[in-house]
Amino acid sequence: MHRIQVGKMFMDGWRMVRMDRRRFLAGSLAGYAVAFSGMAMRARAEATRWKTGLGLNGFMSSADAYGKSYPIWEILDFAANAGFDGIELVDGWPMGGYPPPDAPERIAALKTLYDRYGLRIYTIQTFGADAYAADASARREWIRQFADYVRLAKQLGCSFVGHWPGGDLRGQPDVDHAIEALSGSYREAAGIAAEAGLYLSFEIEPPFLFNTPDHLQRILAGADHPACKTNYDPSHFDCMTGSRGKPEEMLRIVGVKHIGHVHLTDTDGSIYRGTSKHLACGDGHCDIQASLKTLWDGGYTGWIMIDAWMIEDVYRAARMGIQAIDTAQRALSG
Q1: Could you tell me the pTM of the whole model?
Q2: Cis omega before residue 94 (within 30°)?
Q3: In the predicted model, is pLDDT for residue 328 greater than 50?
Q4: Are 215 and 230 contacting, i.e. CB atoms less than 8 angstroms apart?
Q5: Quick one: pLDDT at residue 45?
Q6: pLDDT tens readout for residues 250-268
Q7: Which of 246, 253, 180 shows the shortest CA–CA distance to 210?
Q8: 152 phi/psi in degrees, rounded to 5
Q9: Which residues have CB under 8 Å from 250's CB, separation 6+?
């Protein structure tokens, strides 16, 4: 064979070797990049295991009590820029009630508004004492309404439906009978939610008919359903345990495994305008970091909403709240 041909074959072979080496190195680097990327994503997921929410209830109460004006687009722009992941809706504010579950265009319009700001509607608030009414037909109607809320929540992309069982005895002879009826309603409601891939998270408060750690534990035990959970609000837990500034102690008694949602707020341990006094994180007598550590140690991975109920400056409370959450996640994931 001619030397020129031999030389050409050698050079062609060398180019192929170099090309295969580059491909090998590129593939290896890509593999390492994917591996490191996966490790980074897992580390970030661990560091940010909680999703942060902002409740419209705070803006509603501030507008009503202090005459403040909060355009919805201003709220959503603030929430997006402050780093919140989602919004908890409240029925009737800023305007009109929730759309019915059979109104796809209205539901799509509502969801699109929040999508534009990169925010998720992650839950809706619902109310009503008929869940424990003595009249069985009233309880059945509550279940029917709850099923509609579940259908709506599913279309909005929610994780769960919230419920506040505030009211009088509703015909029940005493609180024990009311707890029994409420537990039965919650068991059925939780089943409906679970079928849709959601869950129920209820919240009791000091001024409610149900207002003690024992009441809360009995409701959970009576419902006895994995999709029936309860809210952790430090202000309520504090007032229900002597206003000592240690709500995390009741949280440990109830068990983090039963927590379906967190309404993060500080308090001075007093009752104000019909509920526990809510204060921005750091303005009250609670150790907010102790609450967050208890949630972390207990494996809580859900939503933490900044609850600025009856706080005049909601934006300040929101900033202080999300800062407290960020501080905890950095410290606890390190």
Answers
A1: 0.86
A2: yes
A3: yes
A4: no
A5: 45
A6: 999 999 999 999 999 999 9
A7: 180
A8: -65, -50
A9: 213, 237, 240, 241
